[in-house]
Amino acid sequence: MKENSINLSGRVALVTGASQGIGRACAIELARAGALVVGAARNREKLNELVGEISKAEGKSSALAVDVSDEDQVKTAIKDTVAEFGKIDILVNNAGITRDQLVMRMKRTDWDAVLNTNLTSAYVCIQQVIGSMLKQRWGRIINITSVFGQTGQAGQANYSASKAGLIGLTMAIAREVASRNITCNAVAPGFIETAMTVGFSEEFKQNALKMIPLGRVGTPDDVSRAVRFLASEEASYITGHVLNVNGGMLMG
Fold it and tell me: Could you tell me which of 104, 128, 178, 181 has the fewest CB atoms within 10 Å of its CB?
């Protein structure tokens, strides 16, 4: 793959929600830096396309069809991954869904689905990979949160709560494993052009743009480059941090 200044050769990275959007960009970026990337998602067809693209650019990758909201599937998938590749050095918890509705009308099933996919799956994945990281005394855990986990968003009580929870989880895990040379950080994207945002109305997009000092919507690559940095040795003294990638939408 095309070289960059960060070298992740010899590292094994697991990226959830890797079939599209930010997760896909993260998988490609980590592979470009030399990591062997295991892309996990429900859509096997899209994962195979991802593996094909990485292979075409002479990168190394593998596909893992798994529903991260199913704890047993996650445990089996990660166990099989460690058995095949010997370890997992880098975990990117990116899988996420939305089920938007005002709280007075929000169904409990929509609350549970978002919390399970966006937050509980991250806890389960961390729990399953941590043994491998502790054993080698090296690891990078990166949780993809959101600006709405920092500011809240009307109609997204479930999503905002799940993403705020990821920030708390990030800091707690960072404190638990720091002595073993394992870092845990979060990346908080702002308005990023993905399949999740493509359905927003033009009015919503224009209003969002007015809130972004840099004057443009972000791309998945803007986020994946931040993830690549946090996964590297260059970020070895950063832990428990939330890196904002939002064009200035939220500062401080």
Answer: 104
User: Residue 201 is encoded by which pair of tokens?
Assistant: 């109305």
Tell me the pLDDT of the chain (252 aa) as tens digits.
Answer: 555 578 999 999 999 999 999 999 999 999 999 999 999 999 999 999 999 999 999 999 999 999 999 999 999 999 999 999 999 999 999 999 999 999 999 999 999 999 999 999 999 999 999 999 999 999 999 999 999 999 999 999 999 999 999 999 999 999 999 999 999 999 999 999 987 777 777 888 888 899 999 999 999 999 999 999 999 999 999 999 999 999 999 998
Pairing of strands 182-189, 242-245: parallel
pTM of the predicted structure, to 2 decimals = 0.94
Domains parsed from the chain with CATH numbers: 12-244 (3.40.50.720)
Spatial contact of 96 and 160, defined as CB atoms under 8 Å apart:
no
